[in-house]
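Try it yourself: sequence plus pyridoxal-5'-phosphate, in.
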Amino acid sequence: MEKKIPYKIYLEENEIPKQWYNVRADMKNKPAPLLNPATLQPLTVEDLNPIFCEELNKMELDNDTRYFDIPTEVLDFYKMYRPSPLVRAYFLEKALDTPAKIYYKFEGNNTSGSHKLNSAIAQAYYAKKQGLKGITTETGAGQWGTALSMACAYFGLDCKVFMVKCSYEQKPFRREVMRTFGANVTPSPSNTTAVGRKILEEHPGTTGSLGCAISEAVEAAVTKEGYRYVLGSVLNQVLIHQSIIGQEVQTALKKYDIKPDILIACTGGGSNLGGFAAPFMGEMLRGEADYKIIAVEPASCPSFTKGKFAYDFCDTGRICPLAKMYTLGSQFIPSANHAGGLRFHGMSTILSQLYHDGLFECRAVEQNDVFKAAVTFARAEGTLPAPESSHAIKVAIDEALKCKESGEAKTIVFNLSGTGYFDLVAYEKYNSGVLTDEIPSDETIAGYLSQLPKLDL
Ligand SMILES: *Cc1c(COP(=O)(O)O)cnc(C)c1O
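Structure, out:
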């Protein structure tokens, strides 16, 4: 007899995965290496060690180790908010009147409000283990900075966050959560770094940008004894840490013999898509199963659907390493009226290679459609979703409505990467009918792509 599936599938504490999964071990075509911007040679651990934590650098460059043991101290922290529930969206199914079976993994059930804590705690642990005093990072709207400040508080590390000035001033809530957890939060650009002072001199009154905050955070890390820099997405190590999400989904589905047909996640730099889907992609790469996996990105920042698979700089300032990835060009900045996050011009090199090899598809969606889906979901399921996560909701609803037309009862699983409590300014715009979308034209994108570095490779 078929088991009745509960509304929430909870796992036991001892069912939290004990290892992280590295999908590169199962990839025939490995992602292209990061290149040193000065020499154009593949980056080595020695290149990375002055900037990032040593143990994390080993993970970053390891294409072969399939599983890494999760340290006990990190597992202990995970117990505070994991395992996260897999929810059968019975109420959404009913609202849509679809025969599809919809599930979502909810990663927003911690104070930082998103999946980013899964990697923040791992990165803080390795910094502590290396004997560092503290770590530096940048944050835009503040999700990553919040997660990192929680992780640093747990291990007693100093946490210096450079927060894009306009967010620092306009979004005081995350800033105060960070300060409550003991982080030192500086509006960027600031006069605390040479690069910040230079930018302030050249552009007095600037409200900052992510690229500028990165430059300040890196400078603060390399010029201060006992500090290193950490990053919350895009990197291979972050995808490894986030694999806890997809592995928990696999365990929960197995409990009730559920076989998913379609897996969906939003993507900005790729950490939640990679974390949620890579364990399933591994099954596909090993020839054990087949799934339809859909990445969802904003039409206003369409790296996968409109970008080029090429080596490019990871930052606006063109000082960071070159990565071969789907990119819109390092100078591309999405329009300021794009409210839904997912603003990075490039994409994880792992996911870029897998997309290039046809392992999954990608859809670009417009933000009014995203918020419409968010509202449908919130009213049906009672959870206010993050705008980023709502990109996945939009496509999950589209797929469920297709099932309604065809009468197929497909099983759809998506990742609800976070809550929308701190995104109420964006909801306010949507509710007031003033949210617009500025989608870059093909000519605009071609202009940015013509500036890609010309490498003889
Ligand atoms: C940061 C964030 C994302 C996007 O980043 P990825 O690295 O692509 O996962 C998605 N959802 C939420 C809730 C986030 O905070």
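One thing you can check immediately is this: The mean pLDDT is 95.
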